[in-house]
Amino acid sequence: MRILALSGSLRAQSLNTLLLHEAARLAPPGLEITCWEGLDDLPHYSPERDTDPPPPPVAELRGRIAEADALLICTPEYIHAMPAVLKNLLEWVVSSGACMGKPTAAWSVSPSLEGGARAHASLVHTLEVMSARVVPEASLCLTLARSGLDAAGKLSDPVQADRLRGALEALATAVEAP
After folding, report:
1. Is the C or the N end of the chain the one with fewer CB within 10 Å?
2. Count of domains forming the chain
3. In the predicted model, what is the mean pLDDT of residues 22-32?
């Protein structure tokens, strides 16, 4: 089962990106998580730029989404919302229909006590408008500071690691269910 992981952060060492790599490490057998690293290559969205064929980075993103069995999208919280770069990514994807019916886990991670709950709500709402099949049992708001990861980028809290595994198992179950 192939899951495409998309981080909503451009920072090389962002908690979101590190958490997606940790999810790939913790994934149960049979689950392959690939982290897409092309967020910074996407042009700014404008309907006039959404041509056939689309710009190469957009074509690659849409193709990777179409090939995936499910999506795992992790967003930071900027000014109580998902960042503009993630919204830009979603705007490029919406017209392709690549997310329609696609099982999707929406994650947010933030050092705040709410775990990025406002950004999470914004992401879930946008995905639902796009007709993605957001899987509530696979979606997480995680309170996590950099200190929650060891030097190798692994979660130091076994409870958090168990939550990730549970969310991934729920996403896999959603893919298998009609």
Report:
1. C
2. 1
3. 95
Query: What is the rounded average pLDDT for all residues in the chain?
Result: 94
pLDDT number for residue 178: 67
Nearest CA to 141 out of 118, 173, 168 is that of: 118
- The letter for the amino acid at 168 is L
pLDDT score of 146 more than 80: no
SS in 3 state form for the chain?
CEEEEEECCCCCCCHHHHHHHHHHHHCCCCCEEEEECCHHHCCCCCHHHCCCCCCHHHHHHHHHHHHCCEEEEEECCECCECCHHHHHHHHHHHCCCCCCCCEEEEEEEECCCCCCHHHHHHHHHHHHHCCCEECHHHCEEEECCHHHECCCCCECCHHHHHHHHHHHHHHHHHHHCC
Q: In which domain, by residue range, is 126 found? A: 2-176
Residues contacting 169, CB < 8 A, separation 6+: 28
Q: Read off the amino acid at residue 173.
A: T
CATH code for the domain in which residue 167 is found: 3.40.50.360
Give dist(CA 148, CA 155) in Å, integer: 6
Average of per-residue pLDDT across 84-88: 97
Sign of CA dihedral 82, 96, 19, 8: negative
